[in-house]
Amino acid sequence: MAEPRRHRLVLMGSDEIALSVFEAIGKMPMVEIVAVYSQPDRPAGRGQEIRSNPIAAWAKQNGLVLLQPERLTENDALALKNLQVDLGVVMAYGQILQEGFLQSTRLGFINFHGSLLPALRGATPVEGALALGLKTTGVSLQQVVRRLDAGPLHGYAEMTINSTEGRASLRHRLGERAVDLAHEKLPSILLGQSQSIIQDESRVTYTRRLTREDANLDFNTSASECAQRIAALEGWPGSTFPYRDALLKIGSAEAEVATAQASPGTILSADDKGLRIACQSGLLVIKSLQKPGGKMLPIREFLAGHPMKEGEVLPSRPMPVLVSPHPFPRVSKA
């Protein structure tokens, strides 16, 4: 008896968040991965060495056909069509797919997106969820259309955001949750049996790419808002504030419910328990800090070498909005 025909797939991703679900799909017996699309190798790290992103590196290690065009063209669409692909699977790829490309596979393209659509469409749904202080988020599986993250939904997987969670942890867990969603929904999609649901456009919100200016902290907002933003922007660009002649980067912080008779930005105390800063409401308690060119240190170690005085007032800088009910203007990558 002949073996059932395996479905021919291409995978498109450039970010580590997609690694778990791509690995899981590659192991499915009904699937054959005919190519992996990823962003070109680029300079990275302090030495600016040319490196492959995690998806490209995985494809190379597994002997998969790897395609890394700087920009997708009509020739790429034609080449994909010639591969006789059944379905394209996308997660955090980094390029917009044009109509000709979307029509080059039998079943089109599906996309794993790190939010419960239609909320938090766009480039930074994980950061948006954390910055807003949401209690729940998840992964959505949508059919790709020309409008940003607007395609009908094949399904979603919900999850709780832990109270002390930062961006790295949440991204990792969302990547793992996408694996569950793939096992649940991909077979029916490949058989053409999935019943997708149109998104509710009245509930749409948007996120955007991050810039260096997003590292600003404004103590004229609440301590909760500052702490949420610090968790959201963990890594790059991080959250910073000027202190004397240096720009200090915060590693971790928490909000304390308290009332201080001091102007926002005032240092109320600086000791082993944290750097406590007055905000418009509540106190921001910083637990770790880093000076330019140095290492991120627990606050006790940082203060031992860089004392900070009670009563000093730290400057506030406006924090650009990360989530909007309207699309953000397109800007170049920072």
Describe what you observe in this structure:
Helix 1 packs parallel to helix 6 (167-190) and helix 5 runs antiparallel to helix 7. By secondary structure, the protein is of the alpha/beta class. It is elongated. Helices cover 23% and strands 25% of the residues.
Low-pLDDT stretches are: none
Quaternary organisation of the protein chains? single chain
CATH architecture of the largest domain: 3-Layer(aba) Sandwich
Indicate the overall shape. Answer: elongated
Helix content: 10-25%
Strand arrangement, major sheet = 5-2-1-6-7-8-9
β content, as a range?
A: 15-25%
The CATH homologous superfamily name of the largest domain equals Formyl transferase, N-terminal domain
Order of helices and strands: EHEEEHEHEHEHEEHHEEEEEEH
Please report the total strand number as a whole number. Answer: 15
Cα-based radius of gyration, to the nearest Å: 23 Å
- Helix count, DSSP H or I runs of 4 or more residues: 8
Which structural class matches the secondary elements? Answer: alpha/beta
Q: Averaged pLDDT, please?
A: 95
| CATH class label of the largest domain | Alpha Beta
What is the name of the CATH topology of the largest domain? Answer: Rossmann fold
**Separation of termini?**
56 Å
List the helices and strands and how they pair.
Layout: E1 7-12, H1 19-26, E2 31-37, E3 42-44, E4 49-51, H2 54-61, E5 66-67, H3 74-82, E6 87-90, H4 99-102, E7 109-113, H5 125-131, E8 136-143, E9 153-160, H6 167-190, H7 223-232, E10 239-243, E11 246-256, E12 267-271, E13 274-278, E14 283-290, E15 297-298, H8 299-305
Helix pairs in contact: 1-6, 5-7
